[in-house]
Amino acid sequence: MAIHFSRDRMAEVMDNYARWWSGELERPIMALTLGGAHPSPGKAKAPWLHQGTCADFRWSAEDIIDKMDEDLSTLEYAGDGYPRVNFDAFGPGVCAAFCGAKLDNSSGRVWFFPDREREIHDIHAVYDPDNIWARRIKDIYRAGMARWEGLVVMGMPDLGGVMDVAASLRGTENLLMDLCDEPEEVLRLVGEIETAWYAAYEDFSRILHPEPDTMGWTDWCGLLSPTPSYIIQCDFSYMIGDDMFRKFVLPTLRRDTERLSNTIYHLDGIGELCHLDSILSLPELNAVQWVYGEGKPGPMHWLDVYRRIRAAGKRMMLVGSPWDFFDVAREIGPEGFYCNYGVNAQDKELIEKLLSFR
User: What is the mean pLDDT of the chain?
Assistant: First the structure.
């Protein structure tokens, strides 16, 4: 199949993202993926890789790439859009599976569970590069590299936040008790998971980046970076106060922002807003994605949150529709936002309006 993109265009898009990360781009990133631009031959055998199909090993890595290639061939890219594959199909926090947790997608969504219940002092997290899930991802990466030679950017899997992985290995309620009863053991386990997390990141990077400048880095949020990057998080922090956040979570986040060239924080839900000042205190953090959550008011309700993030010198990923972006941009300006939209290729008026912000 044909990927409707060029290497010259990729270089141009990469430069725009690099300037966005550094704060030098005086406009929002407007990444548009235009669906239905080209017909699909419909010949691929395998299903699209997603959480409901990730455990179906009947299909070879090459079969999976055939399907991805066929679907990508139907798309065009506008603005700062570029061809990519999201590897969140193996679930949020898949680093837990690399360290021995059970991956269960029987519901159609991926969840992780301890292989057996153990006390925290009996849990030791080590990345296993030969784990069935790590091998599967690497096999697909290799097939994709052979097919696309860097023209399609394959994202890192959703490795998860370190404390989120700890909750998968220990059990959430048990880990909450451990914060009070076994704080030193929690910190020990956090350190082991952090080491395992980077071992996985580097293992995958050796396949995706055989040469330093072969292609960009991305993850499930779609932000492109010319240097190592990631969307860091701690969904577990919804359940703890800021004192515990500063003790058990913030040190890892600080090391992430210092070790990775570009980072954005995934702030998920109103229960995490109590940590926003702590997060914004990280000098090397580039950006924040605020996710207000299902059933909550839309972006216009959270203008104060966007203003706080911008006042701290951070950029933002805006969650919502293009019309949400238009409303927010009208109120506080479009500068510093990252917008990632799938748009019907025939909706010329909407595409033109979105591209007017470039």
Answer: 96
pLDDT of 166 over the 70 cut:
yes
pLDDT on residue 16: 97
> How far apart are alpha carbons 342 and 33 in whole angstroms?
5
* Distance from C-alpha of 234 to C-alpha of 338, rounded to nearest angstrom: 21
| Paired sense of beta strands 29-35 and 76-79, if any | antiparallel
Distance CA 322, CA 47 (A): 29
268: CB partners within 8 A, 6+ apart: 233, 235, 238, 291, 293
Tokens of 256: 């992430």
Kindly state the tokens that stand for 204.
Answer: 């995958």
Residue 358 has pLDDT above 90, yes or no: no
Residue 149: left (phi > 0), alpha (psi -120 to 50), or beta? left
E strand or H helix at 232: strand 229-233
Q: How far apart are CA 134 and CA 131, in angstroms?
A: 5
Confidence grade of residue 213 (pLDDT, cut at 50, 70, 90)? low
For the chain, how many structural domains are there in total? Answer: 1
Q: Tens digits of per-residue pLDDT, 276-304?
A: 999 999 999 999 999 998 899 999 999 99
- Half-sphere exposure for 351 (CA within 13 Å, toward CB): 18
CA 310 and chain centroid, separation: 21
**Residues spanned by the domain of 344:** 7-355
Q: What residue type is 285 in one-letter code?
A: L
- Percent of the chain whose predicted confidence (pLDDT) is above 70: 99
Q: What CATH code is carried by the domain that includes residue 307?
A: 3.20.20.210
- Secondary structure (DSSP) of 28-88: -EEEEEEETSS-------SPPP-TTTTT-TTS-HHHHHHHHHHHHTT-EEEET---EE--G
Average pLDDT for residues 85-100, to the nearest whole number? 97
Does residue 1 lie within any of the structural domains? no
Q: For residue 38, give the nearest of 345, 342, 349, 340 by alpha carbon.
A: 345
Please report the pLDDT score of residue 342 as a whole number: 97
What is the Rg, in whole angstroms, of the alpha carbon atoms belonging to the chain? 20
Place of tokens 């992780």: 112
Q: Note whether residue 2 is domain-resident.
A: no
pLDDT of 212: 65
